[in-house]
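debug: dumping io for the single-chain case to check the tokenizer round-trip. Nothing else runs in this session.
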Amino acid sequence: MEPKKYEYIDSLRGIAVLMVILVHIGNMLLPQDEIQYHYPEWLCRIISAGRYGVQLFFIVSALTLFMSHNNRKGETQPVKKFFIRRFFRIAPMYYLAIIYFTFDQFIGFDFSNLDFSLIPLKALLSSILFVNSLFPFYANLYVPGGWSVSVEFIFYLFVPFLCSKISNVNKSISFAAIAFVVGAIISSIACYYLIPDTVQQNSDDGFAVFNFFVQFPVFTLGFLCYRILNNNEEPIRRSTLALMLAAFVFFFFFMPIPKHLLFSLILLILVVIQARKPFKILSNKVLAKVGKVSFSMYLVHFAIIHALNNIGFNYLFGVNDIYTSLLNFVLMYLLVSLITYLVSSITYKYIEVKGQNIGRQIIKTMDKKES
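debug: decoded output
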């Protein structure tokens, strides 16, 4: 049985991808305009917070995977079918992005003079296998934003086990608390002792953030969200409260909580609110339509921004003060979002949906053999 569709979930995905596009338009325009026209700090922080759209994607993904698992209880060969569905949900569009960025970033579009020796084969292989987020040099090298696709795919390996073990709200809270602490420790060790100096370590854009271990705790909030929404008034145990307190003490006294994890806690509250009693401005047909094609939009918007940068199309009109700069920023954001949506509607229909249909057909064939 296919899982029920919820407007608030697609809307949250829409918000997530629009947040990501916001920060990348900021990366395209702000380095020059911010310095020249003295943007207020609060505005720059809002734009920069768009990066946490990725964490919203992760939370919603974990939530929907738990929902799907619950809806498919009793299915034969559930683990094998789960991986078939997830592979054909992600791989077709992602592999298309790999092909596109092979030309865009490495060998160019001069088809009369292609030099395939310029392709970094190890980075290519790690991307094809979805393991690039495990390697400092390859995490975000091949496909822009590919680190998050890798993180998501590696997370899938743990989903069947976690769905069977995290069976109530107390286990969800405990697991999230432990994951937050362990993830922070592992990330700290990896970044300061194992990663070569040539790789960014302290930046919000470095491997300190673009790796599976530090992002895994975000997914645990999706589990927690599912259990909160299906709690049936289960009381919180003292042992659970003690573990939460221990995690709080750890982050207060020994290690500051990473920004993306702190923001993820805020996003968890947002998801719970939208699931229980959604604000219409954050859950509506427009955002749901954007959310429906959000995976394509996540990959496509990088290509759109790269193309605009390559032709020097960063400004729609002459910019000479902060007001015209801000107007240009808003209009460029709307333009890129619109173009991305239109292109993604096509790739969703002809790449994503067809890929998912292949997965469904394989599963139907498996079911026929069983009957």
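debug: round-trip ok. The chain has one domain: 7-370.
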